[in-house]
Write a structure and sequence with these properties.
The chain is α+β, with helices and mostly antiparallel strands. Helices cover 55% and strands 8% of the residues. Strands 1, 2, 3, 5, 6 and 9 form a six-stranded mixed beta sheet that branches. The chain starts with 11 loop residues before the first helix and ends with a helix. It binds ligand LCXGKVS4 and flavin-adenine dinucleotide (FAD). Belongs to the acyl-CoA oxidase family.
Length: 667
């Protein structure tokens, strides 16, 4: 079944790859994006962005200074949020932004990712009615300022205060120390004129913990900082350099009482405090991003896998047997072992990302109706997924980069930037080690509920099941039964690790340690349990997708799922072996199956990444271009380096030439 990416003039190796494809790449892409219509819209947006002169790049971003890159990004963002705003649906916006602007951030990133969601879910009706229409119409730009120079993880110790003044019915917002400055919030430095600022709420001298407040930072007319406000950019970073992550100090800035976000927690004019229905509803914007970043991080890995796979199909280097032409590097088993699991993981993450977004929407609906009972499960799942996916994605992108040899190290590959953006996710929205512990807290409760025979939510239902013997390798040639056997083994392992961690914790408590110190003595094991819980969820989610897929793509998805399961199990072999649930022979069997999967998937590798349906513009990689004509493109790309504007650089003229001249004259 030919892949529809084939076009005349393409690199012949890539064309051959696409001709040997065994499935309909459009069917898989439509399944990935939800429907044929969504796929068509995705293509339409890509084509229209490419054709819009307002989005044209005179030179690639990689060659721009930070200031110029920020400028170009702001210019394009204006086009998106004025000219294009009504041409796309909200759910198409992330694709439009990726396509038009790229992945390093843009002036309205935090406005969309956190400012609007905070206001939507936490502002009371009056404040929402006043501010939301203005924010949605982009009359103002906002961000989410929570992290401080001294505290990011431990929100209980944030130092910024909002002290209620009953006499004027105002909050006084203050930054008491240098390290209490807000530090890191995206788009805070230069773009935003408003922010949701997280402060300790103080009433009558009593600290009621972190709450959110809407604060105007800059004059709406001049954009100058308002009195009492010190604000700016924190400087260059590994990536996200078109984002103005910022600092902010507030010197006793007064805001009206109604600018506290009071949908859940409330302060009445006389200073009476009413707590929310769930203590952590103030943390809702973080759950929003965690729930959405899974999918977007899956897409980052998908891009890297697309670059590495296509490039490995056009790159020829060395021979496997003597004689004949040099081989495509994609034929080396080590190359397949590096790249194919990344393709499978990218699909797995995208599928899980879609499921968790749906779960988030349901939870939000419940909260709107006064029911927060789905929140703990969602918080545990998003915390685990955010941690596992960003780490897995970072490792995967780095594998893809290394698999492209020297050219992978060049910005022309697009891979270094992808890596920088991906690993940012290990830190933001809660450092991974910290978030895994949030998941572990929930697992520990789950273990107890299971012991007590209580009902368990779907994501931890496995904690209540009984383990049988692992049937890996004992299910004959039936792939469906093999998948089930592996999933059951993963369930056993996730359950066993959670129970072991719980017992280790209890043992320390019984030994005399307080709960918290005992916890710190077992967190490595706790986090291990959280990771396996998360990886089990991802495997189950992929399996659900496989079972519901149309027959036209069932076979290739099943091959991919097999590789995914075999790879994950070999990667986690230590956990499978530790309690004797699996034996060495079963791990050998899984490895053998994995190597078979590499061979099975080889003919479909290029087509599997074509089905990610990432346009050349969005991919932004000379090595990953759809037509595979990389060498000429590499030279054309390098010619644009600013060092090539002149043959003899001032740096050479001013320093190197005189040095050589002086040294020559000494002889
Ligand atoms: C154009 C359109 C674009 C659309 C874009 C949409 C999506 C965007 C996708 C990508 C984003 C792109 C760009 C954005 C890039 C970067 C943005 C980054 C932003 C930030 O980083 S914001 C700052 C984030 N900061 C953190 O995450 C801090 C981490 N720390 C914490 O969360 C907490 O301090 C803590 C670790 C959870 C501890 O808090 P604490 O109050 O001490 O609580 P505990 O005692 O540990 O727990 C008590 C109890 O509460 C439960 N809990 C904790 N948190 C939550 C929560 N958020 N929700 C629900 N429940 C929660 C916890 O489980 C405990 O429960 P128990 O039952 O066990 O008691
Ligand atoms: C690209 C980027 C964008 C960001 N955007 C925003 C934004 O828009 N708004 C905003 O408010 N913030 C933002 N942040 C800040 C980010 O949310 C914090 O950096 C993050 O929550 C981690 O907090 P921290 O920096 O205080 O790290 P720390 O907590 O100091 O972590 C340092 C180390 O200590 C460990 N550690 C800390 N506490 C524990 C614990 N309890 N148990 C075990 N280990 C622990 C961590 O695991 C880590 O290894 C952004 C950060 C980045 C990198």
């Amino acid at each position: 079944m030919p892949n529809r990416c084939i076009r005349p003039g393409d690199n012949p190796d890539l064309t051959k790859e696409r001709e040997t494809c065994t499935f309909d790449t459009d069917e898989l892409a439509a399944n990935l994006y939800g429907s044929r219509r969504n796929l068509e819209r995705r293509r339409e947006i890509s084509q229209k962005v490419s054709a819009d002169p307002d989005f044209a790049d005179p030179i690639p971003h990689e060659f721009l200074s930070r200031e110029k890159a920020v400028d170009a990004t702001a210019k394009k963002s204006k086009v998106i949020f004025q000219k294009w705003k009504n041409l796309v649906k909200p759910e198409e916006m992330p694709h439009l932004v990726n396509e038009a602007v790229g992945i390093q951030g843009f002036p309205l990133a935090l406005h969309h990712a956190m400012f609007l969601p905070s206001l939507n879910s936490q502002a009371d009706d009056d404040l929402a009615a006043e501010i939301l229409p203005r924010a949605k119409a982009y009359e103002i730009i906002g961000t989410y300022a929570q992290t401080e120079m001294g505290h990011g993880t431990n929100l209980r110790e944030l130092e910024t205060t909002a002290t209620y003044d009953k006499t004027t019915q105002e909050f006084v917002i203050n930054t008491p120390t240098r390290k209490a400055m807000k530090w890191w919030p995206g788009n805070l430095g230069k773009m935003s004129n408003y922010a949701v600022v997280c402060c300790q709420l103080i009433i009558d001298g009593k600290n009621l913990g972190p709450h959110n407040f809407l604060v105007q930072l800059r004059c709406e007319k001049t954009h100058e900082p308002l009195p009492g406000i010190t604000v700016g950019d924190i400087g260059p970073k590994i990536a996200y350099n078109t984002t103005d992550n910022g600092f902010l100090a507030l010197d006793n800035v007064r805001i009206p009482r109604r600018q506290m976000l009071m949908k859940h927690a409330k302060v009445s004019p006389d200073g009476t405090y009413t707590p929310p229905i769930h203590a952590k509803l103030n943390y809702g914007a973080m759950v929003h991003v965690r729930a959405h970043m899974i999918y977007s991080h899956g897409h980052l890995l998908a891009r890297a896998a697309a670059v590495a796979t296509r490039y490995s199909a056009v790159r020829r280097q060395g021979r496997i047997e003597n004689g004949g032409p040099e081989v495509q590097i994609l034929d080396y088993q080590t190359q397949q072992h590096r790249i194919f699991p990344q393709i499978a993981r990218a699909y797995a993450i995208l599928f899980a990302g879609q499921e968790v977004r749906d779960q988030y929407a349901k939870t939000l609906e419940g909260i709107a109706n006064g029911q927060a009972d789905l929140l703990p499960d969602l918080h545990a799942l998003t915390s685990g997924l955010k941690s596992v996916v960003t780490f897995m994605g970072g490792l995967g992108i780095e594998q893809c980069r290394m698999s492209c040899g020297g050219h992978g190290y060049s910005d022309a590959s697009g891979l270094p930037k992808l890596y920088g953006v991906q690993i940012g996710g290990c830190t933001y929205e809660g450092e991974n080690m910290v978030m895994l512990q949030q998941t572990a807290r929930y697992l520990m409760k789950g273990v107890k509920w299971a012991e007590q025979g209580k009902s368990l939510s779907p994501s931890i239902a496995y904690l209540g099941k009984k383990s049988g013997k692992s049937l890996i390798g004992l299910k004959g040639g039936d792939i469906t039964r093999e998948h089930e056997a592996i999933l059951e083994t993963l369930e056993h392992t996730a359950r066993r690790l959670a129970i072991d961690a719980s017992q280790l914790w209890e043992k320390r408590i019984k030994g005399g340690e307080c709960k918290e110190r005992a916890w710190n003595g077992v967190t490595v094991e706790m986090n291990r349990a959280s990771r396996v819980y998360t990886r089990l969820f991802m495997a189950r989610s992929f399996h659900r997708r496989l079972l519901s897929s149309p027959s036209s793509i069932r076979s290739v998805l099943s091959d991919l799922f097999s590789l995914y399961l075999h790879y994950e199990c070999v990667d986690m072999a230590q956990h499978l072996l530790e309690d004797g649930h699996c034996n060495g022979g079963q791990i050998q069997y899984l490895k053998k199956r994995l190597y078979e999967d590499l061979t099975t998937l080889r003919p479909n590798a290029v087509s599997l990444v074509d089905s990610f349906e990432i346009s050349d513009r969005e991919l932004n990689s000379v090595l990953g271009r759809r037509d595979g004509n990389v060498y000429e493109a590499l030279f054309q790309w390098a010619k644009q380096s600013e060092l090539n504007y002149t043959d003899v650089l001032p740096a050479v003229k001013n320093y190197m030439m005189p040095m050589m001249e002086e040294n020559r004259s000494k002889l």
